[in-house]
Amino acid sequence: MNKKPIFLILLLLIMVALCSCQKESDITRQGFYFDTVINITVDEKHLSSVSDAMDLCAEMENTFSPTKEGSEIYKINNNQNIGISKDVRTVLDFSMAVSKESDGAFDVTVAPLTKLWNVKERTIPPTDDEIASALSKVGYENFSLTGSSEDFDIDPGAVAKGYAADRVRDLFIEQGIDKAIIDLGGNVVLIGEYSVGIRDPFNPDNLYAKIMLKDKSAVTSGAYQRYFEYNGKRYHHIIDPRTGKCAESGLASVTVISESSMEADALSTAIYVMGEDGLSLCEKFPGTDALLITEKGDVITTKGFEEKYSLTLFN
Ligand code: ADP
Ligand code: MG
Predict the structure, then answer these.
(1) What percent of the chain has pLDDT over 70?
(2) Residue 26 pairs with which residues in a beta bridge?
């Protein structure tokens, strides 16, 4: 039996990380790319652009998926000598910059660890020996796109969806669209002004906060969507490359706002690993802001956030 439709509906019900207010003439179309549900909303007169957007998402998935044989990332990881496309170069160059600026809390070469933890299928955590062995193959400092990087495995999972969302935005702007919500599994890009909800990480069916955004992207990272539980402890998909284990930084979720969804995507993952101190990362990437919800339920933001985005807290 094909389980995908049931899976899609379940995902839609439980997984959308951010939601936005819409107009009556807006229509939303849904797809499944990057292992997640995507929702694209435009005015009904622009419906034909949505299928172009879906095609672009398929192309981005076929470029960045580390598991799809034949994808560019798959070829790089399997040492097949290929030219690097502009898309992959942009994403890897930016990932390297965030790896450096975060002192390795974000690490583009984290793949041996994410493969080992494989939270989608695992039910028991890996052993310390397995973690140590995977950890020895991780280290952005020794990775370069031009040098000999044969021993490295790249995982663009924390940034590729953001990049794809930016590409869809650029396509829509080229096509003259001036209002749209592009939501690639919680990587939200807005063309125009919308109210955006931030999910409650402790009860993801509810909203924790609401903000107003115009022509920006908001991306949330948290441990409440992809995880397994063992002996009462949650093991999730964001790894601290310094320990080789799931990040435990005292944060329940991190939402980053930027004009670039690629930037918001990478920074939300990096700050989630770094914890409260990670807020300083926003200073290194001008034009970015962040809202952190701690495990205790406190809210910490970059300076001026409340006024800039008309923050409303529901708790
Ligand atoms: P999501 O993909 O659920 O939206 P994120 O953007 O936070 O969430 O990305 C999590 C993904 O990033 C993981 O599934 C994994 O592929 C990758 N990843 C996990 N930990 C790190 C890390 N420390 N640095 C870079 N990438 C990571
Ligand atoms: Mg991310």
Answers:
(1) 91
(2) 43
